Protein: SET domain-containing protein
Organism: Cirrhinus molitorella
Amino acid sequence: MTEVKRRRRKLKPLEEAKQFAVLKKDKHGLEAKFISDFKGRGVFSCTEFDKGDFLLEYRGDLISKEECERRQSIYHDALKVFLFEFRYNGKLLCVDAARDDGSLGRFVNDDHINPNSRMKTICVDGKPHLCLFATRNISPDDEITYDYGDSEWPWRRTTLCEVESATLEMNTLSKSEVQDKEKVLVVVMFVSVSDPSVLMHSSICAASEGLEKVTPEKDQLPFNDQDSSEKDISPVKVPVLNEEQSFCAPTEAVEEVCKHNVATSAISNVDKCSQCVGPVASMKWFGLRCKLCSCFWHKSCYAKLHEWNGKESLQEVSSEEDELSDEEYIPESESENQSDSSEELQTRPSYDKTKLLSYIQKAASYKSSEAFRSDVPAPNVSKGKGKGVLKAREAACMYEESDLLCNEEQLIDVETDSDSDINGEGHNPRKQGSEVCRSADVLMQSPRSHHEQDSSEKYLNAERAAVLRAEGKQCG
Ligand SMILES: C[S@@+](CC[C@H](N)C(=O)[O-])C[C@H]1O[C@@H](n2cnc3c(N)ncnc32)[C@H](O)[C@@H]1O
């Protein structure tokens, strides 16, 4: 909070205007707000929480280590930050929260000095859920933070020593400039990484060294009693992925892997154009998003990149979007889900429709009953199996948090130690893959009702997930 308040005083008018605009609010007294271009969004309390209270779940697809690595290789850097790797029962797993499902867990920032919460795993039906609990009393307006672990995260490099060496290297700043704390941040960003957006590129490798086991009151848990099976997990010592793997994401590699399938989209200002890494000022901007790899571009940048005649396609998008230029500032602060209109373009540079269709068909032909919650009916599953996938997801989205059940003794610290295998279980990717994919859909619930969510966006998300599954062959 201190940093936030300090930064707030020095903000320019536009920054000031967009800072702390509420982006999302949940019903449990938390909300996501934009903090700064440097830190992005964060989660803030809008009520009192007591030490030990459950705060939120880090929701997303529960995937295997192999699938995590695969997604890392195709994801845009801005999405990699949502891959949360942890060790559970001797297995390396990952929760991928890249898809914005409306939940707030994906926006919680790191604080290794004075965090106010801690991540634990809660076992439900043998599947881990990452849940955040308050480690001290939290007041309204406090930012919720936890310790991402003992990696050298770039944003932690704000010591004077680093700044001084940065100054020497750059040989451009005077001593007095370095003493300005506001500039210190910029210097560190500039020296630590050549591209500031790389700050958003690291996977979260959760560490929980020295964490004690916590047993909260039953009513503090997001789940009710069911299927108690306590897991003992050793603490983390090494991050699962080293920085090189986590931070290395050349655009060229993404280009090679993905035959982009772009759609016009309202894009959050923390997501930058893959080509020019802009814009820096808009709250939201209109551009193109690849539905497969989730790269973003200005239309003009994309056109240049692919020698594509953007104008031709622009005629085919909705008139509402025609009125907006690429970098146009959109003053309203709103939930991304609400505003993310994804209208597919008719003309695409390298879109292989047959291939995409075959991916979706492959995905649909998986045992869908296994791939989704067994207790979630898939109403009106008719015609194409692809549609069935969508319906099942919609049904899953209707479930509330309280529909998931868990015993209080199922609470376990999150750890990412790759050395230990407590239960002596061998790593079985295939079995694990099918297990985790089913579980992934348990986790894919939205706190909003399915009526509130834009159905076309949900379809696109389901489609993208189907493509990812088909490519990964993890859910067979
Ligand atoms: C899971 S995301 C958290 C939400 C993120 N702020 C956003 O707006 O999407 C992790 C990313 O947030 C940023 N972040 C987290 N903690 C931070 C901190 N203490 N200072 C600056 N940036 C931070 C980093 O870019 C990191 O890669």
The chain has two domains: 2-250+408-417, 260-349. The chain is about 30% helix and 15% strand.
